[in-house]
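Much of our argument rests on the idea that a fold can be written as discrete symbols. This step matters because it turns folding into a mapping between discrete strings. The record that follows shows the chain in one-letter code together with its fold in token form.
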Amino acid sequence: MADPAVKGSMPISGTGIPNSSLVRDLFALMRRQRGFTLIEIMVVVIIVAIVFSIALLSVGVVGDDNELDTERRRLATLIETVQDDAVMQGREFGVELMTSSYRFVEFDPLTRQWAEVPGDELYRLRYLPEGVEFELYIDDKRIRLDDDPKKLDDPEEATPSARIQPYIPHLFVFASGESTVYEIRFRRGLTDMELVMRGDILGQIRFGEEDEI
């Protein structure tokens, strides 16, 4: 039963029906008190889904991640080029991986140290797209990667034997054609999308479990 005080104070029209504006206010108050309606919840869910879909499209992760695959194929092609140069020219190379970048280095037989590949823009420091990172495994052990490249040894400072920790790349590409056995994972943290590239001791590169490039 309604409170007499409230009933008595409620404006009444000439027909005995409460004032329409007050009814609307009461319904609005009731809606606020009982929370969102089903339609309102559905609208919110649809808006969230649309925003999330736009975010996925903006980073190219609907279905296959083409950006990850492009970076994987680029690195694989560069490593194969390095392998050819190593065998044909009798040179030895290395690959250093960082969290989201990589570079190639060359072993100098005169100084017995690793140095940047001279005069070759192909083997410059390269960066992965934003949001993409490396994971490196050697002998089934995950290798900790730094954010920035390590400092190369300076042949004028001291001999390598005098250093506590001389520069050493993660992967080796020898003039014999042999290479470090490794597994590189290209990961996008936002979606946990991951592509794999593996290299064996003979330098053959495979994608995923079986696909050879």
About this structure: Residues 4-58 form one domain. Residues 196 and 208 are 5 Å apart (CA to CA). The chain has four helices and eleven strands.
